[in-house]
Amino acid sequence: MAPIDAAEDEKQERLKAALWHAIGQTVDAIAMTEKMNASTRFIGSLSELVYEKINSAATDLEAFAKNSDRNVINAKDVVLLGRNNDFLRGVLQEQAKQAREQDVSKRR
């Protein structure tokens, strides 16, 4: 394994650990308010699912930008990510609108 690959693998493992920790805290907080228990196995599985979804979204965003002959992902790419989920698309469109409005107000 090349040193670059080892460094990248270590970085990915640290990201997975941080994600596991954050998801574990969120699940534990919800479980306490709902008077339920969540196993470590459940948290691990959920963490893997979220990690894979994040990787898939990143790949899609890069493809959307590349398809538009750009090297930079923009808000339109992010909104396009929600194309199969009406609720998510609405939330992303609203966030993009708010970001544009903040950007315009900062320029003034």
Automatic annotation (TrEMBL):
Annotated SUPFAM superfamilies: Histone-fold
- One of the record's GO cellular component terms: FANCM-MHF complex
* Gene Ontology MF terms: chromatin binding; DNA binding; protein heterodimerization activity
UniProt cross-references to Gene3D superfamilies, sorted A to Z:
Histone, subunit A (1.10.20.10)
Q: Name one Pfam family in it.
A: CENP-S
Specify the domain of life of the species encoding this protein: Eukaryota
Keywords linked to the UniProt accession: DNA damage, DNA repair, DNA-binding
Q: Which GO terms describe its biological process?
A: DNA repair; replication fork processing; resolution of meiotic recombination intermediates
**Family of the protein in this entry:** Belongs to the TAF9 family. CENP-S/MHF1 subfamily.
Q: What is the protein name for this chain?
A: Apoptosis-inducing TAF9-like domain 1 family protein
Which species is the source of this protein?
Answer: Dissoconium aciculare CBS 342.82
Q: What is the lineage of its organism?
A: Eukaryota, Fungi, Dikarya, Ascomycota, Pezizomycotina
